[in-house]
Amino acid sequence: MWNTYSRQFVMRVILLEGGLVGVAVIWGWLQAIPWHNNLTPTLTNCGAGVLAGLILLALNYVIVEYGSRYNAYFRTLKQLIDQDVSPIFRHIVLPAVIFIAIISGVAEEIFFRGVLQAQFGLWLASAMFGLAHVWRKAAFVYGVYAAIIGVFFGLMYRLSGNLWVPILAHVVNNFFAIVYYTHRAPTPTSSVRGEQRERIDL
């Protein structure tokens, strides 16, 4: 059953990610970027995308949960996730999680990889992807990490020539990450924080 918070959250996602798709369609048309030609699904590309998403998910878990014990950068990253990101998803129901993971993966890969990477190249598109995930000054650390993930998605697209590879990698990573956030127990540093971000950055 959907709760009010989940419905409101999904509406925000539709507005944000739908806007990205709209910009991508207009930009692609004006600049003659045929990103839609790279949306033909094949079993090989879909399998590669799912596998890449699972690999990325495992790496993220190791880096955030274990890297934070030994490295100050990863410790800050984990604190941002605990304090700012996890609380947002704690009351999201599973159907909403599925919807959010799918629409964010599809929309963001069409925009950042399908259009921006075609227009500006891998590195600049990845940097823009990272900046889109900065919601406050202290979250620049998170943005850098997101930019690195953007490079990963961009390389998957460049090597395969098919948008379904980064799309499915993004969807798989987002889905399991959000499920993890919804069940994550608050840490001492995050349990005292009651505010939630209005922006949705996935």
UniProtKB/TrEMBL annotation:
GO MF, one annotated term: endopeptidase activity
UniProt KW keywords: Hydrolase, Membrane, Metalloprotease, Protease, Transmembrane, Transmembrane helix
Residues of the CAAX prenyl protease 2/Lysostaphin resistance protein A-like domain: 94-176
Keyword Transcription listed: no
InterPro entries given in the database record: CAAX_protease, Rce1/LyrA-like_dom
Spans traversing the lipid bilayer: 9-30, 42-64, 85-104, 110-132, 139-157, 163-183
A biological process term (GO) from this entry: CAAX-box protein maturation
Domain of life: Bacteria
Identification of the protein by name: CPBP family intramembrane metalloprotease
